[in-house]
Write a structure and sequence with these properties.
- This protein has 17 helices and 26 strands.
- The protein is α+β, with helices and mostly antiparallel strands and about 600 residues long.
- It folds into three domains: about 250 residues, no CATH class; about 110 residues; about 120 residues, no CATH class.
- The strands form five sheets. The chain has an eleven-stranded mixed beta sheet, with helices on both faces.
- Strand 22 and strand 23 form a beta hairpin.
- The longest helix has 23 residues.
- The protein is globular, with a radius of gyration of 25 Å.
């Protein structure tokens, strides 16, 4: 049995840089390279593509940017590939790869994992009266559903590797499964090796977003040099589940406690209950330590027995959306932009009424450059140039068409200073919503190369998990003389999305800062900063959407905010439909600290 394996993370989304594979194959010691291409909305896009052509529906980037140019070199390195590039058509993806391998006369085995696609059982699932996990709404009408996929685990991937696969193609699985599957195969982990499974899953979670672990999307962005040549993450994972994250020499970016801690908190909710099909992970006591330049060690992940259900995500159509971005510059740009935006909607509504169409279901005006993302905390309204992002939703595509026509049609009536860089009028597009629910694992069969995976019928563990014990709150502050300091001076922060929810992870730069941050950055403080985004008619109602979790191991706090993204993804008409910038809003928050901390940091500044 191996003592350790080395895995490179080469893709975090469909559209990630082509440079990753070319860079990682320079390391001939890599045992695996893993690729994550899928998001919920990606599945819907792929489903529509397959509906038009039976041979479509997978990530063609994997063929064109990985297999065709590099498969010979990868074969020479004896590096194996694991990818969810199969999307909604993994069989076709695997078939194309097999043909390429055959044409090149390479002795490589390609395996395909299927079973996640549940569209063939849609009526049966609808009859189960499944409710949405977060909103409790009913299952959508079947003629509106575009895709429906279970999030499979890692054991089928491991089995395919056991059978000699050099390239494993999957459909939908949890993002970290491509890494965990390699670990299970290499170390012969079983379902009872819960802490190891949690460690391998965490390694996968760090790798799954590629360069976000190596200086991308990092609070201290100015330390991440040469991002045009950013290094992609490499995990060296031991058989005990402890791992080290690094990158190749002579590449850009940065690996330190901050970059890896931020990525650990990215897109998670309760850190003591991170739900995966193979294990429930507890990351609250994880330790991240720097062991050398651009290398950190991650340990302390704990595992609990998984549930007897799979998470399933369906995507469905719910009307239409459309929008455009224009620029306005000159004196009074904000006033002129507001006037134009309001006029576009007035003209649109007049036309809707004339043709007998109902009103828009939602509208959005955001003036980028005038601090529209800051809500009540916006300060600068006197800017001389803004970008006008204007958008709407309507039940009928014709309604959006009217709106988009008026965006152009008032071009000669506008206040002066309107401009833009566009190639024509935008078109209506479907609003695609996400419907997440749980289904018994016994309902889902997993297949390896068309043969049922015997382990796919998973029974609920007879061994119950221990009751979750919440970490103790940090010690209260005894110092009565406190002064305000910006959160950014004290912490790193990163935000991300899951459906219509967002999370914001806050990691203190030093353990002694945790108490100050914890008692200043309360649920209410976060709600107030984001109240213009959170659903609810009152502040108290909005407050119910904010939850706070403590991670003492890395002196961190994670906030989960539900119903905050206007639907999320392409169901939203927000400029930031994924909450990517929410952490930046919080970093302006004032934290009350002892004078000695302010003096030490020299943090005299304007608090926003």
């Amino acid at each position: 049995m191996n003592k350790s394996i080395r895995i490179g993370g080469a893709s975090g989304f469909w559209g990630d840089s082509y440079r990753a594979t070319e860079q990682l194959i320079q390391d001939t010691t890599l045992d695996f390279i893993v690729y994550d291409y899928l998001a919920e909305i990606t599945m819907s896009i792929m489903a529509r593509a397959r509906a038009k052509s039976p041979s479509a529906g997978y990530a063609t980037d994997f063929i064109d940017a990985v297999i065709k140019p590099y498969i010979k070199r990868i074969s020479t390195n004896n590096t194996r590939l694991i990818s969810n590039a199969g999307g909604v058509n993994p069989e076709k993806c695997a078939e194309v790869i097999s043909e390429l391998v055959k044409d090149l006369q390479l002795n490589l085995k390609v395996s395909c994992i299927t079973g996640d696609d549940l569209m063939g059982s849609a009526q049966e699932i609808k009859n189960m009266n499944c409710k949405e996990m977060f909103s409790d709404i009913k299952f959508p009408e079947l003629d509106k559903v575009a895709s429906m996929n279970a999030y499979l685990g890692a054991f089928a991937i491991s089995k395919a590797l056991d059978k000699g696969a050099d390239i494993v193609i999957t459909g939908r699985c949890v993002d970290s499964a491509v890494t965990l599957g390699a670990c299970i195969h290499a170390f012969n982990w079983t379902k009872s090796d819960l802490d190891q499974l949690a460690g391998g899953s965490l390694a996968g979670h760090i790798l799954e977003c590629g360069a976000q672990a190596t200086g991308g999307n990092f609070t201290d962005w100015e330390l991440s040099k040469d991002i045009h040549n950013i290094g992609y993450p490499i995990a060296e994972i031991s058989n005990d589940g402890i791992f080290e994250i690094s990158k190749l020499p002579n590449t850009g970016g940065l690996v330190n406690v901050g970059t890896v801690s931020e990525q650990m908190l990215y897109e998670i909710g309760d850190p003591k209950k991170y739900m995966l099909p193979d294990v429930i992970c507890d990351f609250s006591e994880v330790s991240i330590t720097e062991i050398s330049q651009n290398k950190v060690r991650v340990s302390g992940a704990k595992g609990l027995h998984p549930s007897n259900t799979y998470k399933v995500c369906a995507t469905y159509a719910d009307g239409y959306r459309g929008g455009t971005i224009m620029t306005m510059y000159g004196d009074d740009s904000v006033k002129k932009a507001d006037y134009l935006s309001e006029s576009i909607f007035k003209a649109s509504r007049n036309t809707l009424q004339k043709v007998g169409l109902e009103d828009f279901t939602e509208t959005s005006i955001e003036l980028i450059g005038a601090e529209s993302q800051y809500g009540e905390f916006a300060r600068n309204q006197s800017v001389r140039e803004v970008a006008i992002k204007i958008a709407a939703k309507h039940r009928d595509a014709a309604g959006i068409g009217i709106f988009l026509k008026e965006c152009v049609g008032l071009g000669l009536a506008t206040p002066p200073g309107l401009s833009g860089f566009q190639g024509g009028r935008a078109r209506p597009s479907p609003v695609i919503r996400l419907f997440s629910f749980e289904i018994p694992k016994s309902f889902v069969n997993t297949y390896i190369d068309g043969q049922i995976f015997e382990d796919s019928q998973v029974e609920q563990s007879q061994q119950s998990n221990k009751q979750k014990v919440l970490p103790d709150a940090p010690p209260k502050i005894n110092d009565k003389l406190l002064v305000p300091l910006k959160l950014k001076k004290l912490a790193y922060a990163r935000s991300g999305d899951k459906g219509n929810s967002a999370n914001i992870g806050i990691i203190c730069r030093r353990p002694e800062y945790l108490s100050y941050v914890y008692y200043s950055l309360t649920e209410r403080a976060v709600m107030e900063r984001l109240s213009h985004f959170i659903s609810g008619d009152s502040l108290e109602e909005k407050l119910k959407h904010v939850s706070r979790f403590l991670l003492p191991g890395i002196s961190a706090i994670n906030f989960l905010i539900t119903d905050v993204l206007g639907g999320g993804g392409i169901a939203s008409i927000r400029n930031d439909a994924q909450g990517k910038g929410f952490a930046q809003l919080l970093l302006d928050s004032p934290i009350m600290v002892s004078q000695w901390i302010a003096d030490e940091i020299d943090g005299n500044e304007d608090i926003g």
